[in-house]
């Protein structure tokens, strides 16, 4: 049986009480949820259900919306990819925040030109790269703009969390990866790369193969990356098709 969507092992009791009662729709609980988002960023915990509740409060009470908790929620959602949490959060944001920044000659700023809109577009770009398994592009983009550094600054251990998630997806789909390729995916080289691969992931490095490209990283067999042959047998008797064959030769009325 899978884990319930609203389950979070590190959720405080007072947050759980709010979420399971009518107070989750009380605007006065907005500050409580905002403080909880800050706590998640500091403690490296994650509670999607509570974060969605805060975004829902913002949806019902636009005047209470705060940029920092919103972007922190999106950044935390990135750290649990490939789950759909980031998309769930986006769907609770207002349309003018989701619209691309528009260049205009008017003295009045376009609706999508707000700082929050720009931040959301930046984070959406990162999410798109992750969903495309373009991990090297993810790190390149992350280092390309100081705004990204500002957006992830509040989330403790963001880069480490992302490397772990990338390693999980790689471990589910690969048995061997060229070292230089995996270095690009993890944005690590040298001893840092070896320490992460050997100590944290528990994988191996084979330097005897790879054609002078630094060897390959060997991922142990698991139930996700193990190749299994499948034989499909149809247990259908010929007489079951007799009616169909008979109808084929019947003359239309």
């Amino acid at each position: 049986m899978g884990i319930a969507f609203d389950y979070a092992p590190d959720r405080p009791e007072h947050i759980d009480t709010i979420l399971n009662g009518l107070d989750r729709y009380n605007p006065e609980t907005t500050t409580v949820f905002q403080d909880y988002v800050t706590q998640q960023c500091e403690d490296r915990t994650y509670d999607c259900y509570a974060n969605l509740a805060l975004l829902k409060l913002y949806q019902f009470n636009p005047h209470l919306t705060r940029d920092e908790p919103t972007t922190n929620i999106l950044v935390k959602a990135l750290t649990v990819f490939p789950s759909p949490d980031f998309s769930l959060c986006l769907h609770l944001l207002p349309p003018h925040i989701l619209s691309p920044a528009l260049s205009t000659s008017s003295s009045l700023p376009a609706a999508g030109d707000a700082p929050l809109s720009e931040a959301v577009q930046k984070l959406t770009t990162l999410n798109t790269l992750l969903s495309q398994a373009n991990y090297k592009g993810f790190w390149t983009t992350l280092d390309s703009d100081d705004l990204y550094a500002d957006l992830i600054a509040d989330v403790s251990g963001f880069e480490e969390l992302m490397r772990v998630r990338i390693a999980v997806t790689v471990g589910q789909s690969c048995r061997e990866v060229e070292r230089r390729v995996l270095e690009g995916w993890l944005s690590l080289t040298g001893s840092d790369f070896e320490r992460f691969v050997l100590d944290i992931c528990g994988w191996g490095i084979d330097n005897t193969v790879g054609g002078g490209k630094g060897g390959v990283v060997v991922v142990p067999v698991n139930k996700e990356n193990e190749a299994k042959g499948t034989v499909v047998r149809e247990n259908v008797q010929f007489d079951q098709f007799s009616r169909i064959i008979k109808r084929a030769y019947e003359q239309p009325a």
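The first strand starts at residue 176 and ends at 178. The beta strands are 176-178, 204-206, 216-218.
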